[in-house]
Amino acid sequence: MNSLRIEADEANTKVEDLKAKIKALEQENLQKEQEITSLSHRNQVLEAEVDKLEVKVKDAKAAADEGTAHGTLNETLQRKLQILEEEAEEADKNLRETNDKLRQTDVKAGHYERKVAALEASRDQWETKYEEMSKKFNDVKKELDEYISEIGSM
């Protein structure tokens, strides 16, 4: 009977531990979702910046074509164009890194969702086992009480 109590207490402890783990994983999942949102926003900002830079590159190229007669002006525009292209490459690099981080975060989020599902299934099994053991305990207790009352009435 004590072993049943101990086992029930252990089961309760495990259930509480699993609930705490689930809560921690849900919090971590929420943080990952917020990070995904943040990275998505950053991705949009970088894409807008790339678009702006591409427009600037096109403008600089057009100005360079028009200024072939003006050597000094052309050299200046070429320098500006080079700077804009470097900025575009840097923005493109940042965009690729952001997309990689977003993919990694998606993979992690999927992993943690599966982990939460597994923990919830495990918790459900423990709850079922606890309910079964509780019912057995109550049945045995009832039977013991009946024996005691029979012995007492003799």
Please tag this protein with its features:
96% helix, mainly alpha, 154 residues, 2 helices
Write the layout of secondary structure elements.
Layout: H1 2-66, H2 71-153
Helix pairs in contact: 1-2
Provide an overview of this structure.
By secondary structure, the chain is an all-alpha fold. The protein has 2 helices and no strands. The chain has helices spanning about 1-65, 70-154. α1 (about 1-65) runs antiparallel to α2 (about 70-154). The longest helix is centred in the C-terminal third of the chain and has 83 residues, at about 70-154. The radius of gyration is 34 Å and the shape is rod-shaped. The mean pLDDT is about 90.
In short:
By secondary structure, the chain is an all-alpha fold.
Cα-to-Cα separation, first versus last residue: 25 Å
Fraction of residues in H or I helices: over 70%
Pairing-aware structural class of the strands and helices? mainly alpha
Overall radius of gyration: 34 Å
Largest sheet at a glance? none
Ranges where pLDDT stays below 50 over 5 or more residues in a row are none
- Strand proportion, as a percent range, falls in under 5%
- The SSE order reads HH
> With helices defined by DSSP (H or I, 4 residues minimum), what is the helix count?
2
Q: How many DSSP E strands? A: 0
Estimate the mean pLDDT confidence.
90
Principal-axis shape equals: rod-shaped
